[in-house]
């Protein structure tokens, strides 16, 4: 039997332990010292904060330091007041955002936030406003009108970028259609890696400007040590990793928008054999004139059961319905994703489906990999994917969808036996090969079938069967091999015979000697790209076949026409650039400010994995303005190993040294090491900011 004194001592020890445990739970681990931003020599902020509210405040401050004028313009546009601030050229955008109810919905979404996350949004804009007050010289005079910022500005910006632009990418509303955003993403299981650790490739392809601009950051608090990137103006990481796991997104062919044609009649529009009235609202838009005076314009907003009316022509109108506008918690979902420590916790956050679009490609330290065809796909009554791509009848309830598919009904693959998952904006059926997702098991409207050349190149590299180490992953990522050339070039050059013209024979010889890449020094790539443009559609004899996913389309449909187009392409190339074998990088350039470098990489439609899209310049060359943007390679070793690059640099302020400072690395196909320990960061430190002293200024 134990003595009374020993029992009493044991109880005291137990009581003290309970008290200490409760105190630790209440207080949690604490970061000692003030909130700091350690800026490395590439302009990446490493935010060290004692708790999440301080993290969000510092994140707002850091974004304003590197992107103040861009953020203010984007937030001003998202308010639907840009014409009031900056003139007539913004009027079409204002009408669209007002018609879609962005500002009103931002107010509703703010009220729907949890108390915790409402506070985080408040702190984020507090940091932004504090930076603008402390550094007024960083704000252009024309942008001052947008200040101060509020949390509803963040939520309005979210809707404009994610819902209206990514989900609603087919709606132009009087504007030129933007290029469809793309991306590459790979997750590789330990069974396919040389080091026995899962690896992740993060590789979005977006325009290099406006609200598609990425901002790279490192977060460090007692509960999170995360690295990644977000679209500028967003308060949360959109792509990232921690010590346990990471994910990337690619834009999926998700149809979350429909345009409905309405027949107008007296009193409204036809609906299920009767007449239904519109909900109407009249708004006033202020428009700034060049002389500084302001005029007013009336906007009548009409809404049908489908959604807002975008266009009226005669007795017809077009209304739009957009998925995800009833899901206000996207930022909080991402917060829980970046704090997750394993697949179960990560999927618990994913299941909320607050993010209305995007594939998810995931890998973790335990060796799991995952692909998800994410987002909000409407539950439709019938039809194939292509049946819903145009304007659909809006006169009956049969075509009106009212709910979206839950998580359990979405295409998903976890830990395939071949050890890899990928997406290059292809449908979910090719997330791995042999395919594990049968299209017949899902509604025919959920996603299209087909495989474009960049996705084929992605799959071909992964199917090679060799174990992949960190260095080979980097080589694959930077591949400029042109899949279309591999498919058709031999037949094209064979079609050029002795009877062909001299210039056609010269061009064929250039193409035979070409390395089939778009390296800066590649000779023949400019000619081939011009031939593709000259020949136009209908090139292939055999279209893409589901039974031959990596070898079709194939065959020249019309060899005679192809040779004639080659001769014209050769003449055009000589006339414009002086030589039929001009190097790719002499014509296709990387230009930001005073920097002007040769490009390596090429258009997605030609099957180049290192995707770049170009626009013509006044000097006849082409400038990269879209494509490879933020890149990260992550190996979930102990510790995590990572490299990254932000092609155009981590700042857009005109006086920032980091505007375009990574372009030379991009031209050389090099990545930077990711620094996450304080020792590494301080060894490459540019400056240090302590934020505790400006908390409420």
Mean pLDDT value: 93
| Largest sheet composition | 10 strands, mixed
The dominant shape is globular
Helix share of residues?
A: 25-40%
**How many strands appear in the DSSP assignment?**
30
Low-confidence spans: pLDDT under 50, at least 5 residues?
A: 1-31, 172-177
Please provide a written account of the structure:
This protein is of the alpha+beta class and 697 residues long. It has four domains: 37-179 and 674-694, Penicillin Amidohydrolase, domain 1 (Orthogonal Bundle); 183-254 and 327-477, 4-Layer Sandwich (Glutamine Phosphoribosylpyrophosphate, subunit 1, domain 1), CATH 3.60.20.10; 257-322, Roll (Penicillin G acylase, beta-roll domain); 483-600, Orthogonal Bundle (Penicillin amidase (Acylase) alpha subunit, N-terminal domain), CATH 1.10.1400.10. A hairpin with a 2-residue loop joins strand 14 (309-313) and strand 15 (316-322). 48% of the residues are buried. Residues 1-31 and 172-177 have low confidence and may be disordered.
Any chance you could write out the topology, listing elements then pairs?
Layout: H1 4-27, E1 36-40, E2 45-48, H2 52-78, H3 82-86, H4 91-99, H5 102-112, H6 115-134, H7 151-167, E3 182-188, E4 199-207, E5 214-220, E6 225-231, E7 239-241, E8 245-250, E9 257-265, E10 268-271, E11 274-276, E12 279-288, E13 294-303, E14 309-313, E15 316-322, H8 330-339, H9 343-350, E16 359-364, E17 369-373, E18 391-393, E19 412-414, E20 420-423, H10 453-462, H11 470-477, H12 483-495, H13 502-513, H14 525-535, E21 540-542, E22 554-556, H15 559-577, H16 584-587, E23 588-592, E24 595-598, E25 612-616, E26 622-628, E27 630-635, E28 641-646, H17 663-667, E29 672-673, H18 678-683, E30 685-690
Parallel strand pairs: 2-5, 9-18, 23-26
Antiparallel strand pairs: 1-2, 1-30, 3-4, 3-20, 4-26, 4-27, 5-6, 6-7, 7-8, 8-16, 9-10, 9-15, 10-11, 12-13, 14-15, 16-17, 17-19, 21-22, 23-24, 25-26, 27-28, 28-29
Helix pairs in contact: 2-6, 2-7, 5-7, 8-9, 12-13, 12-15, 13-15, 14-15
């Amino acid at each position: 039997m134990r003595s009374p004194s020993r029992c009493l001592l044991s109880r005291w020890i137990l009581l003290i332990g309970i008290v200490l445990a409760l105190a630790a739970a209440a207080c949690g681990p604490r970061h000692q010292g003030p909130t700091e931003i350690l800026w490395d020599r590439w302009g990446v902020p490493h935010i060290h904060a004692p708790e999440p509210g301080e993290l969000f405040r510092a994140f707002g401050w850091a974004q304003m330091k590197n992107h103040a004028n861009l953020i203010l313009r984007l937030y001003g546009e998202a308010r639907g007041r840009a014409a009031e601030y900056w003139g007539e050229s913004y009027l079409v955008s204002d009408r669209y955002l007002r018609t879609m109810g962005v500002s009103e919905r931002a107010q509703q979404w703010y009220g729907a936030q949890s108390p915790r996350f409402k506070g985080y949004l408040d702190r984020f804009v507090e940091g932004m406003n504090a930076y603008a007050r402390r550094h007024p010289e960083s704000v252009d005079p024309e942008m001052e009108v947008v200040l101060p910022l509020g949390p509803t500005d963040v939520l309005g910006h979210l809707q404009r970028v994610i819902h209206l632009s990514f989900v609603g990418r087919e709606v132009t509303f009087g504007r030129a259609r933007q290029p469809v955003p793309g991306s590459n993403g790979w997750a590789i299981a330990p069974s396919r890696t040389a080091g026995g650790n899962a690896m992740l490739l993060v590789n979005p392809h977006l325009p290099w400007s406006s609200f598609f601009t990425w901002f790279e950051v490192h977060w460090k608090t007692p509960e999170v040590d995360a690295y990644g990137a977000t679209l500028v103006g967003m308060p949360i990481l959109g792509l990232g990793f921690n010590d346990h796991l990471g994910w990337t997104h690619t834009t999926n062919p998700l149809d979350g928008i429909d345009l409905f044609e309405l027949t107008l009649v007296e009193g409204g529009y036809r609906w299920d054999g009767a007449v239904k009235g519109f909900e109407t609202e009249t708004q006033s838009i202020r428009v700034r004139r060049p002389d500084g005076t302001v005029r007013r314009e009336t906007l009548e907003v009409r809404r049908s059961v489908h959604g807002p009316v975008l266009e009226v022509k005669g007795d017809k109108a077009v209304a739009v319905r957009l998925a995800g506008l009833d899901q206000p918690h996207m930022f909080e979902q991402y917060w829980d994703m970046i704090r997750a420590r394993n697949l179960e916790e990560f999927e618990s956050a994913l299941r909320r489906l607050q993010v209305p679009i995007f594939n998810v490609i995931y890998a973790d330290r335990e060796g799991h990999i995952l692909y998800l065809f994410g987002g909000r796909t409407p539950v439709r009554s019938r039809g194939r994917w292509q049946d819903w791509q145009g304007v659909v009848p809006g006169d009956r309830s049969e075509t009106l969808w009212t709910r979206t598919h839950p998580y359990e009904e979405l295409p998903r693959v976890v830990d395939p036996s071949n050890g890899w998952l990928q997406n290059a904006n292809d449908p979910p059926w090719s997330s791995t090969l042999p395919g594990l997702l049968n299209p017949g098991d899902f509604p025919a409207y959920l996603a299209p079938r087909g495989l474009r050349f960049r996705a084929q190149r992605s799959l071909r590299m992964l199917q090679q069967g060799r174990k992949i180490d960190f260095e080979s992953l980097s080589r694959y990522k930077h591949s400029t091999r042109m899949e279309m050339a591999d498919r058709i070039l031999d037949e094209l050059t064979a079609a050029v015979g002795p009877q062909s013209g001299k210039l056609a024979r010269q061009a064929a010889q250039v193409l035979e000697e070409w390395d089939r890449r778009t390296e800066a020094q590649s000779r023949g790539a400019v000619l081939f790209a011009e031939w593709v443009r000259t020949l136009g559609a209908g090139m292939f004899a055999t279209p893409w076949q589901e039974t031959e996913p990596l070898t079709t389309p194939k065959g020249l449909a019309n060899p005679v026409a192809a040779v004639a187009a080659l001769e014209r392409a050769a003449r055009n190339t000589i006339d414009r650039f002086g030589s039929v074998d001009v190097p790719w990088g002499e014509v296709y350039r990387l230009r930001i400010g005073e920097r002007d470098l040769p490009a390596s990489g090429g258009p997605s439609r030609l099957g180049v994995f290192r995707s770049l899209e170009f626009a013509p310049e006044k000097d006849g060359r082409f400038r990269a303005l879209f494509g490879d943007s933020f890149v990260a390679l992550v190996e979930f070793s102990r510790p995590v190993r990572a490299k990254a690059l932000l092609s155009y640099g981590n700042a857009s302020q005109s006086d920032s040294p980091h505007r375009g400072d990574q372009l030379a690395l991009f031209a050389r196909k090099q990545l930077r090491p990711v620094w996450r320990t304080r020792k590494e960061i301080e060894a490459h430190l540019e400056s240090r900011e302590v934020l505790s002293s400006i908390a409420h200024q």
